[in-house]
Amino acid sequence: MTTHPYSELETRFSRINALSEAGGMLNWDMATLMPSGGAAARSEQLAAISVTCHQMMTDPKMAELFEGAHAEADRLTGWQAANLREMRRQWLHATAVPERLVEQISRATNRCELAWREARPASDFQQVKPYLQEVLDLTREAGQAKAQALDLSVYDALLDQFEPGFSSRRIDEIFGRLARWLPEVLPRVLERQRAQRPPERPEGPFPQAKQEQLGRRLMQAVGFDFDHGRLDVSLHPFCGGVPDDLRITTRYDESDFTSAIMGVLHETGHALYERGLPADWRRQPVGEARGMALHESQSLLVEMQACRSAEFSQFMAPIAQEAFGGGGAAWDPHNLYRLATQVEPDFIRVDADEVTYPAHVILRYRLETALIAGDMSLDDLPAAWNEGMQQLLGITPPEDRLGCLQDIHWFDGAFGYFPTYTLGALAAAQLFEAATTAHPEIPEQLRRGDFTPLLAWLRTNVHGLGSALDTDTILERATGAKLDETVFQRHIQRRYLDG
């Protein structure tokens, strides 16, 4: 019996992605449960999976299958044609990089991440710098190979792994406008806040167990299904796993419950996107999330647009007060809303408010493009980071733990990822405005903790589309406009200056 080339490609990609999913679970375990003594063995396991997936992807037979599948393209459905397009994009990325380099990158990033886990709390950049240098050198080499294969610049080839079709030129334009806008709007927001009575902070301590219980209750309200996921602790919050087995992590501070709770809600937005991806296309490229800009839009839509709203504060306040046995004006819904929307330049990106957050991402984008281009060395990174923070936000980190060591991304080899955070914030504003325009009842539903109409709209307009369309097309269909900063700026004006 003859197998059609396209069908054979589907079978092969399903096997490759199943192995990649297994690697993802091993990574989750490494970040949450694995004893430190298992590091060397885990590094070998992950390297073996990476190499095996790469060997399967670069099998010489694949080129023949793609040629045959393109020859029969007129017989494919719309979804199949989109899947073929996405399979080919992933194949081009894989075949550009030799197997030797794939194995080296896997081992180097695992070593570097583990070194970062020790260096960060010690605020010792020099301790991890040799490992990061190895990762950076290998990433440059892979980027150069992909740039030649994809006819892109080195940085754009790395960016394409996380946001297909986007370019540094377009990011430069968007970020340039944001960088000019931020110094104008931030002082106005801060001045307006200073003219008001400061919000009261609920008094702790807030035991970790009770924070976890509250987080679970709010996750369920938003729509998280604990039959298909779990919540754990890690050094850096993240959402991993697969659509049918989602793994969320957070970190806790018993003096401030809001950081962990908002982190949990943020990661729940990621999980809802993964859970809503088209089930008929599991383990196929077209069934995956479109890119990290849309992925971040879903986490920021849940956290920033919905869960920091005045309406959601009405729902959360009595639940949080009950969880911690609090009392008094500090637990008033309006007071908690003001705390959730308090703007203050801060060192830590994941704790930043939505007004100053773009500055954190713009800084990282500028630094990583300079590092990849070879215009800056790692010796200069801590000082350049501190200088950039001073220029953009008027603050200077007192130690590297609060500066260049705070994020896992570079130490894990994810160069090209950071821009998608702010691109996601812009997309989140567009999508939330479009959803509430189409369904004006959404804010009132959030007041009751009912995310059903919002989630249903997202399932139809974003989640269920997978990678069938590009980011701009998905946004244009849902909101009437391609990705830009206009709606985000309007949102900031309404929430922080007009409200």
Task: Give me some keywords for this one.
Neurolysin, domain 3, 3-stranded mixed sheet, 3 strands, Peptidase_M32_Taq, carboxypeptidase, Metal-dependent carboxypeptidase, carboxypeptidase activity, EC 3.4.17.19
- Rg, please? 23 Å
Distance between the termini: 67 Å
Total of domains: 2
SS-based class: mainly alpha
Low-confidence stretches: none
InterPro entries: Peptidase_M32_Taq
EC number: 3.4.17.19
GO molecular function, one term: carboxypeptidase activity
Organism: Rhodovibrio sodomensis
What does this structure look like?
The structure is a single chain. The chain contains 20 helices and three strands. With 499 residues, the chain is mainly alpha-helical. It has two domains: 5-95; 169-204 and 270-498, Neurolysin, domain 3 (Orthogonal Bundle). Helix 5 runs antiparallel to helix 6, helix 9 (208-222) packs parallel to helix 10 (257-276) and helix 14 packs antiparallel against helix 15. The longest helix is centred in the N-terminal third of the chain and has 28 residues, at 5-32. The protein is globular.
Please render the helix and strand layout as text.
Blueprint: H1 5-32, H2 39-57, H3 61-71, H4 78-95, H5 99-122, H6 125-150, H7 154-159, H8 168-194, H9 208-222, E1 229-233, E2 238-242, E3 245-250, H10 257-276, H11 292-306, H12 310-324, H13 333-340, H14 357-373, H15 381-393, H16 419-438, H17 442-447, H18 452-461, H19 471-479, H20 486-498
Parallel strand pairs: 1-3
Antiparallel strand pairs: 2-3
Protein name: Metal-dependent carboxypeptidase
Family: Belongs to the peptidase M32 family.
Function: Broad specificity carboxypetidase that releases amino acids sequentially from the C-terminus, including neutral, aromatic, polar and basic residues.
